[in-house]
Design goal:
199 residues, globular, 8 helices, Nuclear Transport Factor 2, Chain: A
Length: 199
């Protein structure tokens, strides 16, 4: 598969991940999960069709990410070992910068989902929560698998990772964040500052 097509799928599916979950903890029925996904996609399209400026839409997408994504867990994982040495204040600042960065990075790609379709295939219990398998169909692209992981570790069911055709999204972000931190010679404060302007 050409890299540009894989990247397109990665961006689109990752953007969806900001809003498609949480699914019901037990994925009570496939029909219920599918209905939830369809309703969320409808809500995303409503934002896209709102006529708002891109800046305003990105704010809406960030709200969706914060509401449905387990941002603190994702941010700590993305920061890797440096999360253990960061001060509480730095970790909080990084988490806030990370949520904005991810929302901007993937939120800008939502327009490409217009006319798309997500079908929930099945759900199963895993050690860290639940795994929900879906099939994503985009205009001009062959269908591809996206697996969402949800957990209630934060006190409610939230999305904390996904796999796009087997590619671990959170691990990919961890690699990218790590490279960005290395480029700044481990200066976390500088990374936080730059993340606020990136994406």
């Amino acid at each position: 598969m050409p890299n540009n097509e894989l990247n397109r799928r990665h961006f689109i599916a990752s953007g969806l991940a900001l809003a498609l979950l949480p699914l019901p903890a037990l994925a009570q029925t496939e029909a219920a999960a599918k209905a939830l996904v369809n309703s969320v996609v409808t809500d995303i399209n409503r934002v896209i069709d709102s006529g708002k400026s891109e800046k305003a839409m990105l704010r809406d997408f960030e709200k969706i990410f914060v509401r449905y994504g387990d941002v603190p867990i994702m941010a700590r994982y993305a920061l890797g070992a440096d999360a253990r040495t960061a001060s509480p204040a730095q970790l909080k600042q990084f988490t806030n910068a990370f949520q904005g960065y991810i929302s901007r990075k993937y939120g800008r790609r939502f327009r490409e989902f217009i006319g798309g379709e997500v079908n929930v295939r099945n759900a199963r219990k895993i050690k860290a929560g639940y795994e929900v398998r879906t099939l994503v169909k985009l205009r001009g692209s062959s269908p591809f698998d996206v697996t969402f992981l949800v957990s209630d570790k934060s006190g409610r069911d939230k999305f904390y990772n996904m796999f796009i055709e087997g590619v671990n999204l959170l691990l990919t972000e961890r690699t990218e964040i790590g490279a960005m931190l290395d480029a700044r010679k481990g200066n976390l404060d500088q990374l936080i500052k730059d993340l606020k302007k990136t994406g």
